[in-house]
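Notes from the pairing session

We agreed to fold both candidates in a single pass and log them together. This is the raw record for the first candidate, unedited. Please don't reformat it; downstream parsing expects exactly this layout.

Candidate A
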Amino acid sequence: MSDPERAISLKLGEIAKQAASIQKSLDLGIVKQAQEAPKLTKSLDLNAITEATQRWRSAFVEPQVLKGIQDTMVVRPFLPPSFTTVISDWQKNSQAIAESIQSIGKAWQATVQSSLAPFQQVFARIAEERKKAELVEQTGWLPHYTTPFYLIDVEESDVAAANEAIATHYAEAWDEVEGQFLENLDGYQIDNEAKATFREALSAHRHGLYRAVPRTLFPEIERVASNEIYGGKRTITEQTPKGKLKAFGITSLPGVSEAARDLPAGDLLSYEFGMNLFTKMEEHLYARVGEDAAEISKFANDPVPNRHASLHGIISYSSRQTSLNALMMTDFMFHLISKMKSYIADEGEGDEDGDVAVKES
């Protein structure tokens, strides 16, 4: 193999390793890896990869070809070949290099395609769901398996029209929506008390008792979490930097987000728009609302109820939209807790201070 060919092969070998690294990085193994998927979908551009490959070939491959051709044509004083020999060598070498480049180019293209092909369908689905979710979230509703996407033109991105379609559906097709909630509720690994409480919240929503819904559901989420995650405890302890133990309540579900991030991603992605709702839980649902007027206003303008603001009387959530969003988030939390049960260690296997622990799978 000539020096130009060897250099090309080495360079493409490096790129093949990069492609393999990309493939490995796209393995959506656990939740915290799946959270990176939107960033990957935004950065992945097959056209850009093709363009970059072409630029690389023009900057590296073609100059090497030219150099190889020039090297064969140089008449060296200490080895004067005949003109016929020079032409013959040039023809052989240029043809060999051209064939080598063509072969390497095909191999590189096949490597890229084989590395990315398994993920194109996944990325397409994630990108489409993200687009749908973004439009729904702009209306103030949560993206959910009950969302009537068949009534929404995602391509038009008309927020007002989407909001009207969603609101009308939830008002006029409540029997259907309630049935969807109840069907999923039956499958959750939670106790009968939790299921009865959720049914009462559905009934309250049906009769327009919207204030009652979040005030009923937030304490129930806490009760279920206490039984299923914290071993029946209402407080847990943590060690301070000075080595002392500090006790605090479980009202904001401490440790749940961290534990949930180590769950298999499929446990979260099996719930439609689970990643969106998980993010909402982390960033909003259990955030502490202070006394600053601007901060209170920010939370009041978000139609998704906040646990601290609701139960401490800071904000009154009294609309159909806030009530239904509370039902959706509770439904998601019951799903999440159900999935976590098989991975959360029991009190005897957990940390001595009662922290949330995840079993090794």
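Candidate B (folded immediately after A)
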Amino acid sequence: MSSIMVSSNLPLPFIGATDYRLLSRLAYLALSRDFDIAGELIEKLERPCVLPDDQVPPDVVRIGSIVTCEVEDGPRRTFSLVYPDDVDAEEGRISVLTPVGVALLGLRPGRAVEWFSRDGQRNHLTVVRVEDDVKDELAL
């Protein structure tokens, strides 16, 4: 089923225990609304190295991360990866329940990823920078 391909043999993605728990629930709840994307997220959650939240490296893409990517044949883009209820395209907040959101989850700078959008178009991008906006939220 996988339409997401990570273009290297680097270690499996990291994910914090809280994100793992919440994303697992979200994926199963979303199966009835968007089977393909939810299935991709479920498949991705079968592979990561789950760490305590405070041990996730700050340069790993996770919920709340600010990510800068080089897009194939396009400009660099910066956005935040968020839960579906927090999406705001004008503010650059994209949902983890989108093809690109699932593709980026758990990646680090230098990793390239290829995925297919909902209309079947092949896309490619490389993670350039990840800002950890999550630690501040965890401290609250």
